[in-house]
Amino acid sequence: MSSTRQEDSVSRRYILITPVKNEEENLQRLIESIVKQTIKPLLWIIIDDGSTDRSSELIKQWKKKTKHRVKLIWHRKSRGVAISKNEGIKAAKGEVIVLFDADNYFPSNYVSLGVKALSSTRLGVVPKITFTTDTMVERALASVTQPTPEGEHLPFIWRKRDLLRLGNYDEALIVHEDHDLAKRANALARDKGKEIYLYSNLPLYVHLPHSLYELYCQQRWYGRGFIAYLKKYPELKTLRLAAKLGYPLIFLAPLGVWLGNILGVFLFSLSLPLILQEVIRIKRGLKRGELSAVLTPFLDGVKWIGFSVGLFESFFRDKKER
Q: In the chain, what percentage of residues exceed pLDDT 90?
C-alpha cells in the first residue's frame, strides 16, 4: 500500500478532541498546528465549557473558512473538563482518539507518527511534553517543574475502545482528572501485559502560566478540587496524613508550610546555607541572562497562597451543600 493510501486510512480512523475554556489567546496557535498536520482528522470535536471570552466566536469564524470537519459543543455554563472530554469521546465515531488541550501546539507530523505508533500491544502513546518559555514566569516554572513520575504517564493518543474500557474520565473530579485516568490506564496496561508507549521523538508543546496571577488562579483551581481527589486516593503516601487531619488542618497545612519555611529562613541559623545557595543560584542565572531566576523563590509562595484559597473555598462550599 502506498504511503498516501496509508495516510488516508489513518485519516479515516482518528478524531481530535479539544476542551476549551477562555483560551482565545492560545487558540490561533492550536489551529495553526491542526491545519499543518500531514493528515486530516475525520472530525475535530471542540467542547467550549462556558467560555466568557471570544473563544467560541473565534472557533465559529474558523469553522466557516476551513475545509476541516468541525463539531462545536457549547456549554452555557461550565460543567468541568472531565465532563467536556467525556462528551467529546461519546460523540467520536472514529477508531482512534487524539486529545489536545487548547494551549497545546505540535509539529506537522505529530498525528501521523503518533497514530502509527499505536500498535496492538500498546494501550496508548505518550508524547514528550515540552514546556513553553515565552515569558519570564514560564521560564522560571519550566526550570523547577518536575517530570511525570513513572507509572503516571497519560497517553494523548488512544483507541476509543480502551478509553471506554477504562470508564473515561471521572466526572466527580474537577481537577487532576488526567492524573486519575493515567493511574487507571497504567494499572490496566500492567494487568493486560500492554505498554504505555513513551514516544521521546514526538514533542507536544504545553503552555505554563504566563504570569504570577495565572499561576495563582491555576493553583486556586487545584485547591478547589483537591478534596475530591484526596477522597478518591486516600492511600497516597504524601496525602495519608492530610486525610486523617480533616478539612481545617488540610486548609492550614499548605499555608503553614510556606509561612514556616519563610520564618525558618529568618529565625534559624541553620537556614543560612540555604539562603546563600539560593543567592548563588540567582546570581548564576543572572550572569547567564536568565532574569527568570529572580522569580523562582516567589513561585512556591504564589502556589501555596492560591492552593490554600482554593481549599478554603472548597471547604465552605462542601459545608454549605451538606
A: 37
Q: Is 146 exposed, middle or buried (0-12, 13-18, 19+ CB in 10 A)?
A: exposed
C-alpha 162/C-alpha 164 separation (Å) is 5
Hey, how many other C-beta atoms are within 10 angstroms of the C-beta on 299? 20
Fold of 3-206: Spore Coat Polysaccharide Biosynthesis Protein SpsA; Chain A (3.90.550)
Q: Within a 10 A sphere around the Cβ of 85, how many other Cβ atoms?
A: 26
Among 47-56, 96-105, 135-144, 216-225, the least confident range: 135-144
User: What are 59's three cell numbers?
Assistant: 472557533
- Can you tell me the distance from the alpha carbon of 170 to that of 296, in angstroms, rounded to the nearest whole number? 34
What DSSP state is assigned to residue 145? Answer: P
Q: What pTM was computed for the model? A: 0.79
C-alpha–C-alpha distance, residues 240 and 237, integer Å: 5
Domain layout of the chain by residue ranges: 3-206, 214-321
98 φ/ψ sector (left φ>0, alpha ψ -120 to 50, else beta): beta
| Nine-digit cell string for 63 | 469553522
DSSP, res 36? T
Encode pLDDT of 199-216 as tens digits: 999 999 998 888 889 999
